[in-house]
Amino acid sequence: MSEHYSSFDRGGPRWLLQRLTAVFLIGVLAFHFFLLHFVNHAADITFMGTQTRMSQVGYFATMVMFLITATFHGVNGVYNALVNQGLSGTRKRAVGAVLTLASIALIAQGIRVAIAMTDLL
Amino acid sequence: MSEAYDRGPVEDFGRWREFRAGMWAWIFHKFTGWVLVGYLFTHIAVLSTATASDPTVYTSTLQGLEELLIVRILEVGLLAVAVFHILNGVRLLFVDLGLGLENQDKSFYASLVVTAAITVASVPTFLAGV
Lengths: 121, 130
Fold this sequence. Notes:
The complex is a heterodimer. By secondary structure, chain A is an all-alpha fold. Chain A is built from 4 helices and no strands. In chain A, about 25% of the residues are buried. By secondary structure, chain B is an all-alpha fold. Helix content of chain B is about 70%, strand content about 0%. Chain B has 4 helices and no strands. In chain B, helix 1 packs across helix 3. Chain B is elongated. The chains are: A mainly alpha, B mainly alpha.
């Protein structure tokens, strides 16, 4: 396959999870963009409108899953891109640790923001 | 499919004139991925204004940003990046399943054309009221 390039070892768990999250993200990212730019114009967004959307259980759960899958997909993509560029040894482990901590911080803060936006909890 | 021969690593950007469709798709997918993950961290940072005790902080921050022309232009760019990453991502999923590999160059060009069409069509919506 002379034309096939990938930053991933095909068949590994990271490769599979990257694709499974991709399938979910294709639909949710398109939905998110369409809802918040074409149905509800971004310039018209208010806290009250956000709270109304985030107080629906299905929407809240979808947004939290969106946050978690997007963070995994994005950070896993960055990590594999760096490994693909030749990152190895101690630097590879250090980058992996920093990216893992950044992911955990982003998801924690994102969930904190989601809770602040909803009156479900 | 094109004949198989070693073109060297795609990471050697100095050879960009020799790059073919699949290599450009790889580079564009990587570039758009970096933009999207960077935006994700920025997005959560801006939305963190929702944690302020006064809800008007969130509303005024978002509406203040939306009043800036540069923000609207960057949003069009973000849409272009997201649409290409989605369309090329679908293309990659099909390639991984072994479907359409012989037409992967055409599907890359189709991703570019559809991205351009959607981006151009969205400009009036993004620039409305600025």
